[in-house]
Every structure is written in structure tokens, then in C-alpha cells.
Design brief:
Distance between the termini: 90 Å
CATH topology of the largest domain: Nucleotide Exchange Factor Grpe, Chain A, domain 2
CATH superfamily of the largest domain: Head domain of nucleotide exchange factor GrpE
CATH architecture of the largest domain: Roll
Strand content: 15-25%
Radius of gyration: 34 Å
Number of strands: 6
């Protein structure tokens, strides 16, 4: 019958350590005991090195995750504010030249333009940049094609109209550009 100290919770026999094995097989032989203890020390060193490497990998991964969290924390808020920026630009684009020159509306127009510039500055401060798509080849990682326009003026697959600007935050895509793509004329 097995000694109960050598049986785990599932009732299976446990492996003995090299030092315990040396004691049971050759307790009188000092050379075997030294060899077994050296093997146990070497095993402990290896396990210690693996544990330290594992700890260092976890630390590096957590530091990277923390850096990413700081860098991209504004992503959700930025996406929400992009629609406000789009509407502000649309509003400015619809103001006719005669109203821009009218003294009654000059202050309003100037205020709207200053607000748009300040919003762009805040975006840049947080790493949010608008990218230009017009004239580029369609890139599914940065553009979302909404329509195809038959034209002889551009090669098929070239962006001929930008329906909504695309933005990046740091090195990641924040919002794809909505674009119209050239198609070979029929």
C-alpha cells in the first residue's frame, strides 16, 4: 500500500523530487545525494528564471496596455465630436458670399470660422488628424466606398469625391472616409 503523503487529491501517485528520490534510493551514498541536490538546484534555478521572464513579459504587456489606454482614451468622445465638426463645416460652406460680406453677419461668420479653427486645433492637440482621400486609390482600411461614378477623367478605383472626411487618432483609424469611386465609363 502506498504512503498517503505520496498521493494527491485525485488518488494518483505523485512524482518524487530528485532530492527525495536520492534519499529513498541511496541515502547512504553522498555522491548520489549531492548529484540529486545539484539537479534540484538547477531545476529551481530554471523555474525561477522562467518565472522572472514571465513576470517581465506581464509587466511589459501591462505598460503597453496602459500607454494605449492613455493614447486612445479620447476615441469615443472624438467620434462623437466629429459629427459636430462636420456640421460646423457644412454650415460654413452654405453661407453665401453676399452674407459673408454683409456687416450684420460678418461677426457671426468670423465666430463660426474661429470655432472651426479652434476645434481643429483641439483635434491636433490630441492626435486627431483629418486625412485627404480625393485622388487616391481606394483603400478599404481607410475608405468606405458609398457610390461608383462612371468617368473617363480618373482610373477605375480612384476616389473622385469625398462625401465625409476620414480621421485618424495617433496611428489608428478613427473614422473611415466615405467616398465616391471612379468606375470605367460605359
Amino acid at each position: 500500500m502506498e504512503d498517503m503523503s505520496d498521493v494527491n487529491d485525485e488518488g494518483e501517485a505523485m512524482n518524487e523530487s530528485p532530492a527525495a528520490e536520492a534519499q529513498s534510493h541511496g541515502a547512504d551514498d553522498p555522491q548520489m545525494r549531492i548529484a540529486a541536490l545539484e539537479a534540484a538546484i538547477e531545476t529551481a534555478k530554471q523555474e525561477s528564471l522562467y518565472a522572472m521572464a514571465d513576470t517581465q513579459n506581464v509587466r511589459r504587456r501591462l505598460e503597453k496596455e496602459l500607454q494605449d489606454a492613455r493614447a486612445y482614451a479620447a476615441t469615443a468622445m472624438a467620434r462623437d465630436v466629429l459629427s459636430v465638426a462636420d456640421n460646423l463645416v457644412r454650415a460654413l460652406d452654405t453661407i453665401p458670399v453676399e452674407l459673408r460680406e454683409d456687416e450684420k453677419f460678418k461677426g457671426l461668420v468670423t465666430g463660426l470660422e474661429a470655432t472651426a479653427k479652434e476645434l481643429e486645433s483641439a483635434f491636433r492637440k490630441h492626435g486627431i488628424e483629418k486625412f485627404v482621400s480625393l485622388g487616391e486609390a481606394l483603400d478599404p482600411n481607410r475608405h468606405q466606398a458609398m457610390i461608383e461614378i462612371p468617368t473617363a477623367d480618373a482610373a477605375a478605383g480612384t476616389i473622385v469625391q469625398e462625401l465625409q472626411s476620414g480621421y485618424t487618432i495617433k496611428d489608428r483609424l478613427l473614422r473611415p472616409a466615405l467616398v465616391a469611386v471612379a468606375r470605367a465609363a460605359d
